[in-house]
Amino acid sequence: MSNPIDFYFDFSSPYGYFAASRIEDIAARHQRSVTWRPILLGAVFKVTGQQPLTTIPLKSDYARRDRERTARLLNLPFKMPTKFPISTTAPARAFYYVHNKDPAQAKRLALALYVAYFADDVDISAPEATIEIAGHAGVDKTEIARALNDATVKDRLRHEVDAAVALGVFGSPYIVIDGEPFWGSDRLDQVERWLESGGW
Amino acid sequence: MSNPIDFYFDFSSPYGYFAASRIEDIAARHQRSVTWRPILLGAVFKVTGQQPLTTIPLKSDYARRDRERTARLLNLPFKMPTKFPISTTAPARAFYYVHNKDPAQAKRLALALYVAYFADDVDISAPEATIEIAGHAGVDKTEIARALNDATVKDRLRHEVDAAVALGVFGSPYIVIDGEPFWGSDRLDQVERWLESGGW
Prior knowledge:
2 copies of one chain form a homodimer. Chain A is of the alpha+beta class. In chain A, 56% of the residues lie in helices and 9% in strands. Chain A has 10 helices and 4 strands; from the N terminus they run βααβαααααααββα. In chain A, strands 2-1-3-4 form a 4-stranded mixed beta sheet, sandwiched between helices. In chain A, a hairpin with a 2-residue loop joins strand 3 and strand 4 (180-183). In chain A, helix 5 (89-101) packs antiparallel against helix 6, helix 5 crosses helix 9 (151-167) and helix 7 (127-136) runs antiparallel to helix 8 (141-147). Chain A is globular. Chain A binds chain B through residues 48-50, 56-59, 61-62, 65-66, 69-70, 72-73, 168, 170-171, 181, 183-184, 186-187, 189-190, 193, 200, and chain B through 48-50, 56-59, 61-62, 65-66, 69-70, 72-73, 168, 170-171, 181, 183-184, 186-187, 189-190, 193, 200.
């Protein structure tokens, strides 16, 4: 059995949302599984000294246009959230808590969180919003509420972010296939070709 | 007849080189012509306050890998130049001088300059190198040598850069189809679809 593909993303990243909607299908076409790994870009940027895209005037205007155009091309519901970017600690903790028990359910939760944020303008940085969405995804709400403040869950997320930084992850989405990194949803075509051919 | 596609690029941009190798074919498939517009990213960055990619540690490591991988995928000769990035005033002036008389020859010259820089490691920031390459491309070398210091040619390049900045061009390659901007060689797929469908 081949290694799983590592899929790093931040819940506040629109291109992460676009990639999340496609990565499982791409992997499945090549008999691969995907390990989803939400990270906190804010923490990554602190280490790498990067600035969020929104601070660069011309680029941010273009980025707005590019996001909407790409969403339309992918037939994905998309509306730039009122609050952006946001801290995604709560959704990321919820993800890892659920993931420990049921990775498939965790992926469904991740997609639900993305849709809530990027289609329905729900501020998922709020723990209550994350809990509500987890409830809809079939997770016990009391359990999730407790998990968001659980020391083990907090440590798990911290560890995942540290490990990602140590590996060189600097953006979202960031996909690693057998050690080969691909950054950005616009590299999904190369991801697919890499899986097809084993590299070039 | 449809409007020409505007193709902005800097001779020091590897992704500009990748796009230059494909843009004419893509446009021709949709009965479009392409207006090539070399610019000076250094001047653009001064206005927009951006930093070259190479100043961001993790990103620059990834970028190196991505460039080589993309070149292999496109079957393009590619070797990261010893001196990078460079000032591209000389090649850009040479381009506009030739373009005034023969746009098709100017495009051939642009491709020859790109190959010299990104495949043969020739430092095309040196006027002598640009003159030599222009000579190989069938342009009179004495004429080009004079053109590189000609006030009209200098003004033309300055005007082109100013107009690009005014339009919002902030990177290379940057392609505009009927007012719709596309940034990056990884948007060529969307460029092709846009030409096919007239937008979405």
